[in-house]
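Deliverable D2.4 — example input (structure tokens):
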């Protein structure tokens, strides 16, 4: 589940855009079990990402809670102080969230994390695009063609 972020970080010139369909998240930890386990110590990944200023150890990222507008009871975690992810900074990124998915409560944290690290990221809530009812398995649901249409239109407007 870390592969896309790691690939873009290592070879940003080879990646035109990232479309993350309900990516592993939220940053730093899982939403369950409770209490949360910090199993993504580098934010988006369990493996190191290239930060500026450099972080040789993930503890240097020192994640701090900030308000999660989609679920105030479960704050987002962002690096403190902010650090840049230069490999992701020039790549357009879309994070898609299904209306009936548990991801709708924390994909915004992934977008906030990406934006805080210098990336040009947006969250696309499928219901806001008229694609309603989706849970986590967007690609195998009855309206998967409508989901693919949202992705295709975003790529056409944003991929470089």
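Example output (designed residues):
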């Amino acid at each position: 589940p870390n592969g896309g972020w790691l690939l873009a970080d290592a070879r940003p010139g080879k990646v035109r855009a990232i479309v993350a369909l309900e990516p592993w998240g939220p940053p730093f930890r899982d939403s369950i079990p409770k209490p949360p386990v910090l199993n993504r110590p580098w934010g988006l990944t369990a493996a190191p990402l290239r930060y500026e200023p450099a972080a040789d150890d993930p503890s240097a990222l020192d994640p701090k809670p900030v308000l999660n507008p989609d679920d105030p009871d479960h704050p987002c975690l962002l690096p403190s102080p902010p650090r840049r992810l230069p490999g992701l900074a020039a790549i357009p990124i879309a994070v898609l969230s299904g209306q009936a998915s548990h991801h709708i409560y924390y994909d915004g944290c992934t977008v906030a994390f990406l934006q805080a690290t210098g990336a040009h990221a947006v969250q696309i809530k499928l219901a806001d695009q008229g694609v309603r009812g989706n849970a986590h398995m967007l690609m195998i649901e009855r309206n998967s063609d409508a989901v693919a249409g949202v992705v295709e239109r975003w790529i056409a407007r944003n991929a470089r």
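DSSP finds four helices and five strands in the chain.
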